[in-house]
Design goal:
about 60 residues, mainly alpha, Arc Repressor Mutant, subunit A
Length: about 60
């Protein structure tokens, strides 16, 4: 997982929306959603909660 994907995943795991994540990382919402799609594919997740849970259990965040 890339550094930016990890940053996005941390924000999402903290409960931030895509818009809040975009603001805090100074990127667009479209870019956040692009990273989320990549994260879902890499982790086999279907949503933010699954991705955050998987990452926490496996020590990715």
């Amino acid at each position: 997982m890339s550094i930016r994907e990890t940053q996005v995943l941390r924000c999402i795991a903290d409960g931030d929306t895509s818009k809040q994540t975009a603001r805090s990382l100074s990127i667009s919402v479209d870019t956040v959603n692009f990273h989320l799609r990549n994260i879902y594919n890499k982790l086999g997740a279907c949503n933010n909660a699954q991705a955050a849970a998987y990452a926490a259990i496996h020590g990715l965040i």
